[in-house]
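Record minuted for everyone:
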Amino acid sequence: MAAHTPRCLVRGSINIDEFFSLPHIVLPGETISSTRYAKRAGGKGANQAYACAQAGGGVDMDGCIGSDGIWVKDMLQKAGVGVDRVRLIEHEVTGRAIIQLSTDGENSIVLHAGANANIPSSDTSPDVSSYTHLLVQNEIPLSSTLTYLSLGLINIFNPSPMLSPSELRTFPWASLTWLIVNQGELAYLLSALSDQPFAMSDNTSEAVNGQLRTLHCTKGFEKVSVICTLGADGIAYLLPLEDEGEVRRMSAGRVEGGVKDTTGAGDTFTGYFVAGLMACLELDEILRNCMTVSSFSFSLSRL
């Protein structure tokens, strides 16, 4: 590998997020009035790149915007993210996320890909000689990124939004170093791979630990380290190369005043996690830092 100084390539989405504050998440067939509206920069790729830069990590963003999103590129650059690989797609709008925020801190999100759908695939081996780490999500076409996973970098995958069952069954899981999912995503993944139902809302230690062990025994996952985020319950994680299938837990810290908004918490966790890996910190320190900062959701959308 030609790169010496740790640096991460984030290949993912760049969005403009539109926030609607509501008494509760809209129900099917219901029309309600928003109490507040805001438009901010976002996208899982951009949020995670921003968080990585905020944590002191060297990071470049690889994504696409429309002409209406040049200001988002400028914000990323000012935050310390390299933007030379951000492409302008003249005929498209920048990706959109329509985000409902309820008074109890929950959210619901609708995505429009826009320019994100135009990120090019590579038929030849892309030049990643400047990078040691690759961070990807699932808000851009999956086919455009698969080549990058085979280039020998430390690959971190946060499959959100979750892949389809057919994509899950054909994805090259063995190419990953780290997989970061929440409990619902973990259960969905296992259900798709095994054709057996797994409870998507069971956060009990017994259920999550069992799901992580089952995933570890699934073909392609034998050497993949998996982190499962559990919201207020902290995280569970399995390091197959160190713990021989033992699941570890770490509780979440308490947030003074309670959680106001969970939007961006997962992206903040992931970005800080990658920065910690690049800084060669001890894993316990990395995870504790991630949970602390993600409780405040320092995402790009909060700039």
Q: What stands out?
A: The chain has one domain: 8-15+42-95+114-302. The chain has eight helices and 13 strands.
